[in-house]
Amino acid sequence: MSAPDTAAPPANPAPNGPSAPPAAPNAPPQQGQAQAEEQDEAAEEQDRPQDAWASRRELADHAPPALRIGSGAGFGGALVTGDQHGVSGGRVAGDVIMGSKTEIWQLGPPAPHASGEVPAATLERLAESFVADEEAFGALADRLREERVLVVRGAAFTGRRTAALMLLRRAGATSVRSLLRDRPPAELAAQLDAEQQRAEQGRAGDAPAPGPVGYVLCDLMADRTRPLREPHLLAVRDRLAAHDGYLVVTVGPTAVLEEVDPAGWQPPSVAEVLTAHLTAQLRALAPDPATCEEYTGRESARLLALPAVTGFLARDHQLREAAAFAPALARHAAGGLPADELDAFSLGALESQVREWFEEDEAALPLRDKAFLISLAAFDGGPYALTAELSDRLYAELLRTQRPHAPADVPVFGTHIGKRLQLARAERRQAEEATEWGPVRQWVAAFRDDRAALVLLRELWTAHPSARPALVRWLRALAEDGRPLVRTRAAATTAVLAHADLPSAMALLIEEWAASPRYRHRMVAASALALAHFVGAPNVPRILDGWSQGEDRPMRWVAIRTHALIGPERPAGTLRVLRTVVRKEYEESRREDPPAPLDEAMVEELAGAVELLLLSEARETVLGELLASYEVDRPARDLTLAGFLRACGRGAEPRTGPESGPGPGAEDEGPDEGHPPGRPLVLDWYREAVGGPATAWVAHGLTRLWRAALGDSLHSRDALEVLRLWVLAAAHRQDVEWALAALLPALVAEPEDALRLAHLLRTMPGEDGAPPPPVAARLLTVVPAAGHPVPQHR
Fold first, then answer.
1. Strand order, beta sheet including 382-383
2. Are 489 and 529 spatial neighbours (Cβ–Cβ below 8 Å)?
3. Is residue 337 helix, strand or coil?
4. Which residues pair with 257 in a beta bridge?
5. First-to-last C-alpha distance (Å) of the chain
6. For residue 431, which phi and psi values (nearest 5 degrees)?
7. Residues 450-484 pLDDT 10s
8. In terms of DSSP H, where are the helices of 12-158?
């Protein structure tokens, strides 16, 4: 077993470039088949194994924040990133009905009948907790009095309906009637006439009119086929003036208006709404009316300071969720709601929102918007353009499931980015994205609630099995993509699905990738298993141990790669598995007559696993295990020395391409975060160990492995090459030179050692074929002669 090159071959000549375009969906069968065959051939030519170090860097750079290595986030039991998910982990507030029934959360006040009078008690209750900017609200009320009809535009769930009712109340309406929203805008005037006729017929004899009547029409359905136009409002205004009435129409951001000047609704903050609703709830609990205000002020301040409340306000919750949270807080204040159920309210509201997104009813989201939500969950925090591009691919796959015999019709242009993100309760911001060529600033899109992506994917996979075929096809296509970010997010999404339902994710995705002859698929499988283990999916180590001992060589390769990624959690057990596998490789090689050469790819993968372990946070445990076992037999010795030399090359390798290590500007990214470029990681570790009595054994152990590698005929050439790289690094960094000057004398135990090192320092080529750097001559002076004169530098 020889040490591999320090630079791994690239997985793709242009790793961040776009993947080959899919065959045109409407192309003739022969043409589509030819395109597919050409793409497969090109993919085979580009398929190369990527070393374990680069795989770990991709996970560190491109995995979602909630799944990123070392983030501490994940699922635990029924937890989502530390919050309760579902009902398996304790008590849950509210009515939860399991089985074939539906769980219903009532958020906000109940809606009145579609057409009829809003009860006065409802208006009084809303007025008690209504909060708005007084100046802006007063201006809207004045405009309503003057114009009689007012169109209020605002986003969903921002209190538009409550604001409309309070505007009518402020304008002087003595009663409020709610109108049907699904009637065409052209019928508004006729609808008002009919309402007025019913009101007159309901009045007894010559009874006087009760006063101005207010009408509210919430969420008018105005689209391109039936827009709301100015003549519609002029006709309505005439009717209202004749009958002394007022009308407020609420519309969403996408409603089509022609020559209509809507009033923009600026909602209050979630904290203001929660405080107002909580105050109204606490007034009913005041023990003494005389001290009501004092009690509500004191109790409100106490409740708002609770961790459950500050956590709720820190999340991206809607006003309706804040209004529903206030009664829960009041019940908690009265002793009727335990603290753990109060803590669960925030996550329960998020789950309710996710379920609402995927509902199929008259107010359901279009399928393309649902595809965007799923893509955003997979690429949360990633570039918006990439998320939108891949969401349309998912939309096409969903259409194939929904309409299998119809061609996929994907619109070229769609909803504006701002409206799309508003619907998804997400935000767009500029951020630096890690690439093979250094960080690049891009517009990224992310859910405002960092739990949303995990909850959405879990809900999709477990509650909507009909979407699985499209999602599986989409993830398989992402695994083929030439961009590391896309492949990593495919693995991360699969990891979340595996946590939710391990058998299905294994059967539909991971096992197929793991058994593939292509390295790209196997790397995605390994990343998915590693991330699934990080978020708490069960039995991943058991799966890997089985694959390691199995006869399926691609799966054995995946098991080794995954062990390398998760090995620092159980270093001793991982090393035992690696030693078992390398012995199995040697035995299988000797079974042939004559003996067959070792599987070079498998051997390199085993060495890469040892390298990652030696460079992890468990490095001291790993070093101790290696020192105790590497002399047991030849396979263990070769595994240890090859992995050790690979680790020694990290930090000193020449940067000749995007896969050779961290590039300029990327030195603070990934597994070697915070380590300066051009300073070998293992040599830096040796320098730290030499200076402390408690770590002297580390320095001795590293020296012992170096001596073994230099004195082993199979590894000495690779060891001398790594030392040459260290000398070249010392030419640029004085701290590296000092560390190397401390190490070289310790490597000389026999006269041959001194001769070997002296020959290297005298004859090694410099960078780009130049003569040896001056530092080589300075280091030559510290190499002891061991009874022989030290060769002089020529």
1. 382-383, 440-447, 426-433
2. no
3. coil
4. 228
5. 35
6. -150, 160
7. 999 999 999 999 999 999 999 999 999 999 998 99
8. 29-46, 52-62, 120-129, 134-147
